[in-house]
Amino acid sequence: MFGREILGHPAAALRREWIVTNGAGAYAMGSLLANAPIRKYHGLLIAALEPPLGRTLLVGGLQTSAEYGSQTYELSSFETSDGRLSTGYRNLETWQLDGAIPTARYVLAEAVLGQRIWMEDGANTTYLLLTHERGNDPIKLELRPLLSERDHHDTTVDANWQPSFAALANGVLMTTPAGTQVRMLSDHATWQNEPATWVEDIYYREELERGYPDTARLLQTGRFRATLQPGQSLTLIFSTEANPSTDGLAALAREQARQAQLLEQARLLHKAPEFIKQLVYAADQFMVRRTVQLPDGSTWQGWSVIAGYPWFSDWGRDTMIALPGLLMATGRATLAADVLRTWSHFLSQGMLPNRFPDVGAEPEYNTVDATLWFFQALRTVYQATGDIQLVADLYPKLVEIIDWHERGTRYSIKVADDYLLTAGEPNVQLTWMDAKFEDWVVTPREGKAVEINALWYSALRTLGEFATLLGNDHDVERFRCAAERVAVAYRRFWSAEHGYLYDVIDGPHGADSALRPNQLLAVSVAHSPLDDATAKAVVDSCARHLLTSYGLRSLAPHDPQYLGVYGGDLKTRDASYHQGITWGWLIGPYISAVSKVYGVEQARSYLQPFADHLRDAGIGSVSEIFDGDAPITPRGCPWQAWSVAELLRCSVELNNR
Fold it and tell me: How confident is the model at residue 99 (pLDDT cuts 50, 70, 90)?
């Protein structure tokens, strides 16, 4: 719980944010400072109009005031570009997550007004519940929705944008010029139309930090009014659905029961620390439904993973890395199998998509590692469930992947003469270190990358295990021999001069000796190509030069190319993205590697700093990246799937060991 020690200080409260999601790509977001928006992505309804994408900001905020006794209290805050901040936050006394539901309490003299915000699972519907929790007199409320219709990546809407409005029995129906219908309803308040006015100069301070346009306008056209007696509740509903429920208390009970079930399913984490259990709710926020078009013209409802909120879509690499933690560690094996089947439908030339772009674009296949992580994810699911049917169903596609890699596929991805996997072309980024600004690939890794070939070796070993399981004797020998060839050739990554592994060998400029965390995957992966002494040397080098409290730096500080602070415009940020910035997800491979080399108890200690981080940035979740330099400030996406997943995966792994 946060009190006035944070909520009463704008700088502290504005750096902390909340999110609620709907399992279909939609979300609502705000800051702890009385929901003051600090990003263009903040609002009460960012609907996924073509789920899980097509995300469109429709309700950008709510101006709220309350009258109690003879005094009026502002209950919302907005910032303008000249530094003015409306004062609603001064009446905010506490804020906390109840499960995954943002819960705030405002004080009005001796009265307390409670506020909860959540979304209906699977629906573009946001609920806001206000409850008169304490006080002897009624509270009179006025609530003015601020409206828009823009892609969530944009900040502007045409000044001539004019939706139409039609009265409903319990609110109003807004129809936008694009034809989107938004129902604004209440179970207790009444709607009053007003002349349309623009609320100008709403300031998004985080967009200024990111080098994007930082102000916006929102349209105000009316207000809800209500009087709450002591103990009474009021619900506001914002929805693109045709018939959303207006029973707020029943909707709240449904969501609380759903969240309770999530925690019950996560039996493997029952002995975990409380902050790890909180991540069970965070993990659920990334799961989204995705419709798959089958060859016969029919559709199949599958599942995928949003890589991070608010700006990422579903990415292949992130999905496969995150799957063991998001789903297997939380007891959702059936959903994990659905994710694997969903993505398998998009295999093309032996490759999984790198990502699904926003609406109207085809999947992008510029990744060398997403497909290799697919083997790791399937292995994890099978080990936990014994689902041999899943393995049998996907086995032909796994063999097809190997076939394509042997003869060569996109972007010069192919098996070399030594059976290591080489990949890359000029101006193309294929590994997870994929920052690119215009034609500048910031971290070029053409050639044979250290983690790619560790994953390649493990994939061959895994496929050999599956072949044995299914009785495919010919394939057993084929993949055993291939893996042995990779293991022999992999010794070339060792640099006796440096005492760790080269990051890339046989690249355009020879071997790359930059000290990066990628080599940790050669230790942590299911089948390691390293002997014990080499594994220990890798862990020690990474620990001494790359480890921070919240993950591992992407480049050692002594390297001339090191950049330890993330910020500025897109070019400046991309320049540092993989050149020293700390990545939260890398704590997972590091913990797994340490547990192999030094034991479980030492490995377990690296989880603890994240207990504090869950009270910063995206509350209850884990950020994408952090500065490489102290104090390791959180940056980038406040809610990142693989950052959350790796903590969950490691918690279960360490308990099992």
Answer: very high
Q: How many CB atoms lie within 10 A of CB 12?
A: 15
Q: Are strands 308-309 and 171-175 parallel, antiparallel or unpaired?
A: unpaired
Structure tokens at 397: 């596609």
The tokens for 82 are 């000249």
Is residue 622 within 8 A of residue 640, CB to CB? The reply is yes
Structure tokens at 378: 């399937």
Dist. CA 41–CA 45, nearest whole Å = 10
Decide if 25 contacts 47 (C-beta within 8 A): no
pLDDT of res. 440: 92
CA angle 204, 210, 215 (to 5 degrees): 25
* Beta-carbon count within 10 A of 289 CB: 18
Three-state SS at 412? helix
Rounded mean pLDDT of the chain? 96
Burial grade of 133 (CB within 10 A; 0-12, 13-18, 19 or more)? middle
Dihedral through CA 453, CA 316, CA 434, CA 565, nearest 10?
Answer: -110
Q: What is the pLDDT of residues 272-308, one digit of tens each?
A: 999 999 999 999 999 999 988 877 788 889 999 999 9
User: Taking a C-beta distance cutoff of 8 angstroms, is the pair 525, 458 a contact?
Assistant: yes
The rounded distance, in Å, linking the Cα atoms of 515 and 518 is: 9
Average pLDDT over residues 155-180: 93
Alpha-carbon span 380 to 373, nearest angstrom:
11
Of the candidates 407, 422, 429, 437, which has an alpha carbon nearest to the alpha carbon of residue 576?
A: 437
**Residue pair 55/25 in contact by the 8 Å Cβ criterion:** yes
Q: Which of 432, 480, 426 is nearest to 452 (CA)?
A: 432
Cα 591 to the chain's mean position, in Å? 21
Between helix 388-407 and helix 450-470 the angle, nearest 10°, is: 130
Q: Give all strands (DSSP E) within 532-590, no chain letters.
A: 547-548, 551-553, 582-583
- Residues 427, 409: Cα–Cα separation, whole Å: 17
pLDDT in tens, 342-397: 999 999 999 999 998 776 678 999 999 999 999 999 999 999 999 999 999 999 99
Tell me the one-letter amino acid at 434: D
- What is the spatial distance between Cα 534 and Cα 413, in angstroms, rounded to a whole number? 27
pLDDT digits 0-9 by tens, 390-438: 999 999 999 999 999 999 999 999 999 999 999 999 999 999 999 999 9
**CB-based burial label for 598 (10 Å; 0-12, 13-18, 19+):** middle
Q: How many CB atoms are closer than 10 A to CB 61?
A: 25
Give yes or no for a contact between 321 and 642, defined as CB atoms under 8 angstroms apart: yes
Average pLDDT over every residue of 12-24: 97
Q: Are 566 and 625 in contact (CB under 8 A)?
A: yes
Q: Say what the pLDDT of residue 359 is.
A: 66
Alpha carbons 541 and 593: distance in angstroms, whole number: 12
Query: How many H helices and E strands in the chain?
Result: 18, 34
Q: Are strands 171-175 and 27-31 parallel, antiparallel or unpaired?
A: unpaired
The one-letter amino acid code at 79 reads E
Q: State percent of the chain over pLDDT 90.
A: 94
Show Cβ contacts of residue 484 under 8 Å, excluding neighbours closer than 6 positions. Answer: none
pLDDT digits (tens, 9 = 90+) for 219-278: 999 999 999 999 999 999 999 999 999 999 999 999 999 999 999 999 989 889 999 999
